[in-house]
Amino acid sequence: MSKAIRMAMAAALLSLTATACGGGYDRADTIDELVDEGGGAIDRDQATCIVDKLEADIGEDRLGSNDDPTAEEEQIIIDATFECVLGE
What we know:
Blueprint: H1 3-22, H2 27-37, H3 44-57, H4 60-63, H5 71-86
Helix pairs in contact: 1-2, 1-5, 2-3, 3-5
């Protein structure tokens, strides 16, 4: 797995965890965090793709909860990141 992909996945997990710790979900902020925390590994279109998939597969209410992602949700994040960054 390339360093860029690892950074993208870490950014997605970090962003979602930070969102959960903040006690709210804001789509634009989450996209911005993915781009900023991705260290150049995620562009705005890829971040938007990831957020679209997370909203569809996890739901906005859950994204805004105070709980850490479950193992299943972490896998959804990883799958969305791979699909959106690699186009698979």
